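Q: Structure tokens for this one, please.
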Amino acid sequence: MVARLLLTSALTSMFAVVLASCASSSANLQTGMTPDQAISAMGNPDLKDSVPDPDHSGGTLLRYTWVDPGKAATFGPDNRLAKVEQVEGGSEASRQQQEHGFDPIATPINYFFYPVRAAFIYLGAGVNCALEGQCQKPRLPSPAAAG
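A: Here is the predicted structure, written as tokens:
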């Protein structure tokens, strides 16, 4: 009886998770949508800007960009979605790569304290050599590496 109840609740929970994941991943942009419909389908855009209208000189079109899904929506002069484009930089890996670039605070501090780090690494290698008899030259990290 208890096993049957646990199995039923587990299957119900699994079905709810699958249903929720399908509902959240089905956010799609379709031509003809208004800006409000696009926002309700995709959430608030990360970037709102105006781009020149390729068909008319001097005119501008509204463009919304969502970075996470990697989509940009361009609305026509009638305020309806005219074009959906894929944009780069929407993946988690590319965003992490950009985040782990140059840090204006940590990088100079790492270079400043590098001699102290190297001294402690060599001190540890010397203690290891004296106590355990495993003498080898230590490998030093790069000065820019965070420790």
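A few notes: The first strand starts at residue 47 and ends at 52. The CA atoms of residues 117 and 147 lie 9 Å apart.
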